[in-house]
Amino acid sequence: MNELIRLENITKSFDENVVLNGIDLTVGENEFVTLLGPSGCGKTTTLRIIGGFEQPDSGIVYFDGQDITTLPANQRNINTVFQNYALFPHMNVGENIAFGLRVSGKSDAYIKDKIKYALKLVNLKGYENRRIDQLSGGQQQRIAMARAIVNEPKVLLLDEPLGALDLKLRQEMQYELVRLKKELGITFIYVTHDQEEALTMSDKVVVMNEGYIQQEGTPEEIYDEPINAFVADFIGDSNILSGKMVDERVVEINGIQFPCIDGTEQGFPPKKRVDVVIRPEDIEIRPYGKGLFNGTIISKLFIGVHYEMLVQSEDGKIEWLLQNYDQHDVGAKIGMYVRPENIQIMHKPKSEAESAMEIDL
Ligand SMILES: Nc1ncnc2c1ncn2[C@@H]1O[C@H](COP(=O)(O)OP(=O)(O)OP(=O)(O)O)[C@@H](O)[C@H]1O
Ligand SMILES: [Mg+2]
After folding, report:
1. Which CATH architecture has domain 3-235?
2. Candidate from 18, 19, 50 with most ligand 1 atoms within 8 A of CB, to mutate
3. What is the domain partition of the chain in residue ranges?
């Protein structure tokens, strides 16, 4: 595979906090590379350095063999779809897609053709004149993609582009992205903190933690041969749920309140919407009505040492994944309990409302 981008010993600090600790990374032509890691590990910063929106303190960025470390963003053959995709709400779909082309002075006929082409690619043919607020989240996401694609970049940088979508739409978009990548024949560098997403879509997964690359490899390599506990832990199965802080150190998931150990001090004040991760082995089984919440076991698998069970919540909205050494019957109603320290609160990707107007020209 031909090398397209290479990061050599990149370091970056913000206010004396080291955010990137000597990142070495090679991205091949037409490769789908995913940067995977927990919140704050430096994924976005890495992407911004590749895109030219941020300068490293030291190290070199190569593109096609050229040192582009100090080349401005708009002179790189790279386009970005940001974590918060920041469409222009006062422009319609067509105008949004055309924005970059107008700035670079392309003719009206050329632009019209390009809009058509891009809308077809993202399966939104005929949407030119729709207003942005008349689109669903997934459609807006695809417009953001179309806007990046029309500039014909050699590389597309995608920062958690599916973060705001519900699970089903996310999965659909994952297929779309892989298809798009094949059709366009360009290089994708994708950022996510969702391990499943990374494993599904990528040619290469790069697992990051605290400014270091922990491991890079094919999805199979990362899954089957994790290099350390961090990677193993990060790649393993988890319950990942949407939640909301309702009090200091209390998070609500699907109407149930869980005491946890995170609060304002950790950046999770009351009312904040969050993602919550609960590992299957951390859900303890209690008698029905004696835990924090109840459910019905709907499936059970014996996998070596322990049982893996799916437990449906009483309102039917959530299927919890549990691992337990004890045998329980399918159909049984159980209570469940999770210790506060086993509830991991995570930041959600920024919502559109919070988004700064970051423009990718
Ligand atoms: N402009 C900045 N000024 C100060 N600190 C920053 C700045 N940008 C990022 N950081 C810090 O650098 C670290 C890495 O941030 P980065 O945005 O790269 O993380 P991330 O891996 O993208 O996380 P997430 O999954 O939450 O998006 C964080 O601790 C963040 O607070
Ligand atoms: Mg980020």
Report:
1. 3-Layer(aba) Sandwich (3.40)
2. 19
3. 3-235, 239-347
* Higher-scoring residue by pLDDT: 318, 164: 318
The pLDDT, as a whole number, for residue 276 is 84
Q: How far is the CA of 229 from the centre of ligand 1 (A)?
A: 23
Point out the ligand nearest to the CA of residue 274: 1
Mean pLDDT along residues 124-134: 93
Q: Are strands 155-159 and 187-192 parallel, antiparallel or unpaired?
A: parallel
- Residue 40 Cα, ligand 1 centroid: separation in angstroms? 5
Look at residue 224 in the predicted model and tell me its pLDDT: 67
CATH tag for 239-347 (out of 3.40.50.300, 2.40.50.140, 3.40.50.880, 3.40.640.10): 2.40.50.140
Nearest bound ligand to the CA of residue 349: 1
Contact 139, 124 (CB under 8 A): yes
- Model pLDDT for residues 270-287, shown as the tens digit of each residue: 999 987 878 898 999 999
For ligand 1, atom 12: residue with the closest CA: 19
pLDDT attached to residue 29: 94
Q: In sequence order, what DSSP letters do the residues of 93-160 get, joined into one string? A: HHHHHHHHHHHTT--HHHHHHHHHHHHHHTT-TT-TT-BGGGS-HHHHHHHHHHHHHTT--SEEEEES
274 C-alpha to ligand 2 centroid (Å): 15
The residue whose CA has the least distance to atom 19 of ligand 1 is 40
Q: In what order do the strands lie in the sheet with 250-253?
A: 256-259, 250-253, 239-247, 273-278, 344-347
What are the pLDDT digits (tens) for 227-264? 765 776 688 777 878 899 999 999 999 999 999 999 99
Pocket of ligand 1, beta carbon within 6 A: 14-15, 19, 37, 39-45, 193, 347
Amino acid at 141: Q
Residue 359 has a pLDDT of 25
Indicate whether 351 pLDDT > 80: no
